[in-house]
């Protein structure tokens, strides 16, 4: 067994998703507090460890089904590069390390990381087979990341922040299901998918397209309304956040193009790290947001 196989099993490229924990510090204007910065960095690492533990746990549970998938069959457990014993040991070690880091920050952070692990245990135990609920479960994991970076640090969470995060993660989740549906069922099979993922049997391509449309519209409109909300303007001392909306719209529209023109979207983290348009849109949004919030 190679160490590289264990690293691939932990999926470090997916850690970009844990950037959601920084939203509270950025939009709560707490980046100038050294203690908070150290704590949010610790929570970021804690969620990287916890999410890797979850990926290992899911790969253990899905190893047989993954062998039927055109790309997931190349995962270390599906290929047999890593045994069940070492995989379980890695999962437990990652989870305990995540708990230890979260506990060092606060008890509420520990509870949130615990809730994240519990949510994913319930997901793996059977809720992932329930269409629509499966994607809401995934979105719930992102909401817990946001709560860790707000409530876990004593920062009141913004309702707008939670709403935008929910709609965005639902969009990415349904986009992922659409990519999986096409990968295992093919565009010519619009009414059902094979048995790789049981929840896919409850979806159809038209339904997924509709759910994607609703969630991406909710994310775009929610963010636009957030930037012009009176409380937002008062909190940040600027009304110029509206100027960041074009970056958000371009990123969302580009992701739609990736899904519908290139049949992508199966791995949002990979798309974010490899598509130059998405990288530029994200960097532009980050730079503009930092500029306006810094005054």
How do the strands and helices of this protein lay out in sequence?
Elements: H1 3-10, H2 23-27, H3 34-66, H4 76-79, H5 84-105, H6 107-125, H7 133-148, H8 159-185, H9 205-228, H10 230-236, H11 245-261, H12 268-274, H13 276-293
Helix pairs in contact: 3-5, 3-6, 5-6, 6-7, 7-8, 8-9, 9-11, 11-13
The name CATH uses for the topology of the largest domain is Tetracycline Repressor, domain 2
Cα(first) to Cα(last) distance is 52 Å
Mean pLDDT: 90
Question: How much of the polypeptide forms β-strand, as a percent range?
Answer: under 5%
Structural classification: mainly alpha
Helix content: over 70%
- Overall shape: it is globular
> What composes the largest sheet?
none
Provide the succession of SSEs.
HHHHHHHHHHHHH
> Could you list the spans in which at least 5 consecutive residues all have pLDDT below 50?
186-195
Count up the helices: 13
Supply the CATH class of the largest domain. Answer: Mainly Alpha
Radius of gyration: 19 Å
Q: CATH homologous superfamily name of the largest domain?
A: UbiA prenyltransferase
> Which architecture of the largest domain would the CATH scheme give at its second level?
Orthogonal Bundle
Number of DSSP strands?
A: 0
Number of structural domains: 2
Q: Can you describe what's shown?
A:
The protein is mainly alpha-helical. The protein folds into two domains: 1-157, Tetracycline Repressor, domain 2 (Orthogonal Bundle), CATH 1.10.357.140; 158-295. It is 70% helix and 0% strand. Helix 9 packs antiparallel against helix 11. The protein is globular, with a radius of gyration of 19 Å. It starts with a helix and ends with a helix. Mean pLDDT is 90; it is low at 186-195.
